[in-house]
What we know:
- Helices cover about 35% and strands about 20% of the residues.
- The chain has two domains: about 170 residues, HUPs (Rossmann fold); about 90 residues, Pantoate-beta-alanine ligase, C-terminal domain (Pantoate--beta-alanine Ligase, Chain: A,domain 2, 2-Layer Sandwich).
- By secondary structure, it is α/β, with parallel strands linked by helices.
- α3 links the parallel β3 and β4.
- α6 packs across α7.
- The chain is built from ten helices and nine strands.
- The strands form two sheets. A six-stranded parallel sheet has the order 1-4-3-2-5-6, sandwiched between helices. It has a three-stranded antiparallel sheet with strand order 7-8-9, covered by helices on one side.
- The structure holds adenosine monophosphate (AMP).
- Adenosine monophosphate binds next to α2 and β5.
Amino acid sequence: MSSDQPIVAHSVADLRALVSGWRRLGETVALVPTMGALHEGHVSLTKRVRQEANRVVVSIFVNPTQFAPNEDFSKYPRTFESDLTKLAAAGVDAVFNPAPSDMYPDGFATTITLAGPATAGLEDRFRPTHFAGVATVVAKLLLQASPDVAIFGEKDFQQLAVIRQMARDLDLPVEILGGSTIREPDGLAMSSRNVYLSDAERQTAPLLHRTMQDAGQRIRAGADIGATLDSARAAIAAGGFDIDYLEVRDAATLAPVEALTGRPLRMLVAARIGKTRLIDNIAVEA
Ligand code: AMP
């Protein structure tokens, strides 16, 4: 594995020049969109796409349009130098780190309008403008980097569904892959936002995953989904969380389900502890 520093492209023009140089050599390109503050989850996505393409580009851009005014845009962790060190160790070829004014020049006026999985009643109920911001910036990144393949984490399960739907609907010439969720040893899903947790909250946080696993097991064994979710919600609330949602949905469409269907299901949670909002999800196969 190379530990050369990745090439850093700061502008769309630099990124395009880099990618077209590779393309002239017949090389294929993978894109891993991120907001930086990188952890093992992000690194795992770069390793997964390394198997699919000759060149791996990671974008680092804290996208202002996917944060609501009351959210954490200004305090979102920014750790560019240590991100570069991690990406060098992972053998990533290039980092795209555009300025907000490059992504959203004066007069920018276009937003993608979404239905389908983006309006499933999960994240969208609590962050109504979020997915329009995500889809628009991801569409831009895909058009800027023109990768053969792009990867998104299952950690943000609804986001992955939204992006798959957008790529299909807009005939974007890219293969969208999902990467499995990387967890801390105690089960907490890695997230750039975990640094917001106090020590006590960090101790409590694995309750989310533990409770979902327990509920998933009971549902697979035939327990009623509604009743099982009610007791799981009670357990999570008793740990000190305020729950936004805990639901079981069809994994492909995110439509509500009331019983095992024979199709893959997903259990998804969002809950707040102190000032931190955590999301997670697990498979509940039939
Ligand atoms: P973010 O920087 O949080 O926007 O995440 C960038 C990408 O990394 C998204 O596709 C996320 O779904 C993915 N990701 C975030 N956390 C994890 C994790 N724990 N395991 C795998 N992928 C993740």
